[in-house]
Amino acid sequence: MSSHKPTNTPIWKRIQDRLGVKVSKKGAKLVDDNGLPIPDAELRHAVAGNADLKWFIDGGKLGVETVVSVLGKQGIEFGSLESVLDFGCGCGRVLRHLGHYENVHLHGTDISRPGIAWCDANLNFAMFGTNRLYPPTRYRSSSFHFIYAFSVFTHLTQELQTLWMTEMRRLLKPDGLLLITVHGDHYLNHLSEPEKAAFHNGKLVIKGSESVGSNHCAAFHPQKFVADSLAPETGFKVVDFIPKGALGNPKQDAYLLAADA
Ligand SMILES: C[S@@+](CC[C@H](N)C(=O)[O-])C[C@H]1O[C@@H](n2cnc3c(N)ncnc32)[C@H](O)[C@@H]1O
User: Is 0.70 surpassed by the pTM of this model?
Assistant: First the structure.
């Protein structure tokens, strides 16, 4: 005999409760608790590594929590910033949760045309555009007070990391801040023994460099590489290092960087 109890709860309500999302009144459109539509599985997969609906929403919120707390440690309120760029925003997993900061000019850029097209059509509180794999972007120098890049430098070769850090430096105002997240010590088990040895010697390790810019290319950053090479060689200094601190990209390390005057 079946152990299922009969239920009067409609199927749409059960799906809604299970996934933590809503079905909009207009029809079969999934929306979050702010009424914003949710991108399809392919777009979600491209930014989160899986298409899980609940994680797409919760992980994005945790990304915002990371931004707010990292800036908070410096005495900066996110809402006090004038202009912010989400570099490598994809389909706006994190940026979608920032719309209530009405005084902050929000921008997002990515190489993914489908991701940016989705943002353009659905997140009307921010400005979006695409960029190419190589810099520059279309923004003027000193455009932003704050730039964040969640799990973007994790998919770039060393050459591109240097070029993009230099571009980030150009885009930031003189007292601006950059937050990046990378694969640090937590990801050592993804490396072969020779790669682990290189990592322990402070060398950047890249796997799948032929797929640069996609999730098939993975970069692994020892703290020494960021602090002694990547940051200083591109005009930055490390203001804060939070091991496994990227709450929405667990368990990547987070670095807050400032222009080295
Ligand atoms: C793992 S996803 C993370 C997306 C988003 N930051 C998030 O956390 O939800 C990596 C993103 O970096 C983007 N990306 C890779 N190379 C890029 C580049 N050169 N310029 C801009 N975006 C890039 C990819 O298209 C993708 O959207």
Answer: yes
